[in-house]
Amino acid sequence: MRLSLIITVLFVGLGGVFLALLYQKYQTSFYPGVQIDGVSIAGIPKDDVIQYFQVRQKEIDNQRITVFIQNTRTSSTAAQLGFVKKYQNAIDQAFMIGKNETLLQQISRILSLRPVPQNVHALFSINDQNAQEMLRSARLKAEIVGEEPAALLEISQNPDSVTLKSGKTGYDIDMGMTMSDLLSHLDEGNYSVQATLFTSARQLNDDEVKQGLLRAAKSFK
């Protein structure tokens, strides 16, 4: 009887020591289930997590982003675009998960066999001016036609003569749509996007149409 009591006391004591050590460990690390951008960091000291994501940012710096326009392509690295993931903010936010809960709640987190995943997404910033410059370089390389008339009205000195010629079909980059597409893929490593184009050809104005119709009418008289 006495022996079983001693064993029970020792077991409870060892369990208490083990639990205290676990609790102390999680005061300087991340609770079970905590993730940053899908990467599990549970039980890892904060300083080690900071170092890991510093390396990750350096890898991101070397990612190549390519914009295709028809048969041309223009590339830049993420560093050249000023793309920075705000990992430190995400780390600080993830570190505080569970830290302000009651002692009982924190112990429950530590002992949970199926911790609820809590994923913190790192936000990012980009140098908008650099990104716009990349798209402008792509536009220049592709020799974008830009705004051109869909038709040309050629009027001779002869008042009965009028000629309607086919013009160039103008097109240009939709900067907003292309930029949005570019930003949506920045977390995917090396990647390519197809620039969004739109027709920019102007139509004949009212005066040109009126003049053309009048001269055309005369020529049929």
Number of helices: 7
Please state the average pLDDT score: 76
* Shape call: elongated
- Rg over C-alpha atoms, rounded to the nearest angstrom: 33 Å
Can you offer a commentary on this structure?
The protein has helices spanning 2-27, 46-61, 87-95, 103-111, 128-141, 175-184, 206-219, and strands at residues 34-36, 39-40, 64-69, 72-77, 84-85, 118-120, 124-125, 151-155, 162-166, 171-173, 191-194, 197-199. The protein has 221 residues and is α+β, with helices and mostly antiparallel strands. It has one domain. The strands form five sheets. The protein has a three-stranded mixed sheet, with helices on one face. A three-stranded mixed sheet has the order 4-3-11, covered by helices on one side. Strands 5-7 form a two-stranded antiparallel ribbon. The mean pLDDT is 76.
